[in-house]
Amino acid sequence: MQLGESELGGPVDAHEQVELALLGPHLGDVDTDVVDGLKGFPDAINAAFPETTVQTCIVHLLRLSLDFVSYKDRKPIATALKDIYRAVDAVAAEAALTGFEQTPWGQKYPAIGQSWRRAWSEVIPFYAFPAEVRRILYTTNAIEALNSKLRRAVRARGHFPTDEAAIKLLFLVLNRSEKEWKMPPREWAMAKAQFAVLFGERFTKALAG
Hints:
The chain contains 13 helices and 3 strands; from the N terminus they run E-H-E-H-E-H-H-H-H-H-H-H-H-H-H-H. The chain is mainly α and 209 residues long.
């Protein structure tokens, strides 16, 4: 999986375009890509990886929702939104979203429902996954530190004479970072089994490689 991170609603910046252009041919295939609402990023990803399922980061969507809310109202609204992202499937989730929009909270803060509906095409894939996979996919937080390391390395260098030079730098950063990864998430064993069912040979070949 490749997980993207940037400012909500911002355009795809030059560094993200470079990452997609350089990493795309070398990744080979990406089953699921989790992004945090970056405008234009799903289209860029699908251009490089047509079979990839693009999933929005639920945690970032919740943060965006609470940005519209006064501090004293945040806790009850966060509780009310659980019915949406904990729904059993996409149909139930949309019914929960509609229900929220009709509540006093939804009426007081209509921008919340609007923000979910704008992102809905990237929210829906979440509901196709079982609970153990959802726990892996609902946030990009675990990868943001790695993204930050890659970006700092690229920006510190500034200029690369060739694409290969940029790839080598990113490889070195990833190689050093991999040594810091001690334990996978506790849900990973169950998630692997589900990914193998959902993506078949695409996933098992990548796992073997």
